[in-house]
Amino acid sequence: MYINLSREQGVCILSLNRPGTNSLHQDLLNELYATVTEISQDEAAKVVLLTSSLPFGFSSGLDLGSFQGTHAAFVENVYKAVYKAFQIVQSITASPQIYIAALAGPAIGSGASIALACDLRIAAVGTWFWLPDPQYGGLLGDGGLERLAQITGTGRAAILALTNERINLDTADQWGLIYKTASREKLMETARTAAARLCGLSGKTLEHHKKILNQTMPLRFPGEALRMVLHSPETYLRFQSYIKQK
Fold first, then answer.
1. Is 5 in contact with 14 (CB distance < 8 Å)?
2. Domain definitions of the chain by residue range
């Protein structure tokens, strides 16, 4: 089990708990998708707090080391993982519940996409975001880029998508990615307070406001583009070099 799930007074607390860095291998992605799907059917749940149980931070992104093998195996494994991350992003944005991501430390690659899929983000000092696909030759086809552009505008989204630069909490806050900030020690207290406040509001109003805000978010998975990128010999060489550096 890589997901801890608890419930308290209309709030589901969903914590990633894969030892190390919450790197997203296929089993974790499958479990997260199943949990998000289950919660979406829970009429008693109004708010979901998505966080990490680990001191490392939120998530280091796809577990590329688990996808090693021949080039053909690499293509299929990464494709399946990106598609599952896409399904998670779609499910969170379509969920009737309001999702709050409580973040501390790194949110990288598909980990960042899942955090961006949430409706609100509360972040501790030391939180940062990075989309490393240009470095290792991947393609963030999981909906994270669309969600980033929706929140920040395409100009700011391009800075993360095209430069391989990281943004810190101050920049993320300036860009409108962050709802509230807190110390790491006060992160979950702040997130719980925000969740309790939302639970006191009209659930149906919040649900339909979310639908209106996300009406452009039903996405088309860029499967053909992803396969073209992954089949490139350059991508495979970059992937192997990236794994060695980690």
1. yes
2. 3-199
Spell out the residues 6+ positions from residue 228 whose beta carbon is closer than 8 angstroms to its own. Answer: none
Distances (CA, A) of 142 to 4, 42, 187, 207: 23, 25, 27, 23
Q: How many whole angstroms separate alpha carbon 238 and alpha carbon 230?
A: 11
Sheet strands (E) in 148-187: 167-168, 180-182
- pLDDT given for residue 242 in this prediction: 83
pLDDT of residue 69: 87
Does residue 61 come out as left (phi exceeding 0), alpha (psi in the -120 to 50 range) or beta? Answer: left
Give backbone dihedrals phi and psi of 46, rounded to 5 degrees, phi first.
-100, -35
DSSP 24-62: B-HHHHHHHHHHHHHHHT-TT--EEEEEESSSS-SB--B
Q: Minimal CA–CA distance to 82: which of 240, 231, 182, 221?
A: 221
Tell me which of 3.90.226.10, 3.40.605.10, 3.30.1340.30, 3.50.50.60 is the CATH number of domain 3-199. 3.90.226.10
Averaged pLDDT of the chain? 95
60-110 tens-digit pLDDT = 999 999 998 899 999 999 999 999 999 999 999 999 999 999 999 999 999
Distances (CA, A) of 244 to 20, 47, 64, 236, 241: 18, 40, 11, 13, 5
Q: What is the pTM of this model?
A: 0.97
